[in-house]
Design a protein that fits this description.
The chain is an alpha+beta fold. It has one domain. Helix content is 49%, strand content 24%. The chain is built from 3 helices and 4 strands; from the N terminus they run αααββββ. Strands 1-2 form a two-stranded antiparallel sheet. β1 and β2 form a beta hairpin.
């Protein structure tokens, strides 16, 4: 009986560790994407001539490419782009709204993330 209790306890511990690992991985990916949104909004590559963002769709596609690096799959309608400021000194706000699914055995749950360049 004690052996069965130990095996069931270890199995439960493994499932909890898997859930924590996947949740942590999603959270780290979200933090990395948030940092990339901040970098894209600062337009540092555009200011030194590496990239030119002419339209909001250019920003959306750049965000999608960055998100794919972290296995985050976004659609253009999940990305918000707002421009303000002047032509000489523009202010760009970028945000994404997505859910990441965590699966453990037969149980799954969603984590909701809303990274933005303002955070």
């Amino acid at each position: 009986m004690a052996r069965i209790t130990i095996i069931v306890g270890l199995a439960a511990l493994v499932l909890v560790l898997i859930a924590v690992w996947q949740t942590a991985a999603c959270t780290v990916a979200n933090v990395e994407l948030r940092d990339d949104l901040h970098d894209l909004a600062s337009q540092a590559p555009a200011r030194i001539g590496l990239v030119d963002f002419d339209t909001d769709n250019d920003f959306r596609h750049a965000v999608i490419r960055k998100a794919e690096q972290y296995d985050i799959h976004l659609q253009p309608e999940q990305i918000t782009v707002r421009r303000s400021g002047t032509l000489k000194d523009p202010i760009i706000y970028l945000a994404a709204d997505y859910r990441a699914r965590v699966r453990v055995a037969r149980y799954s749950f969603n984590l909701h993330f809303t990274p933005s360049s303002a955070q």
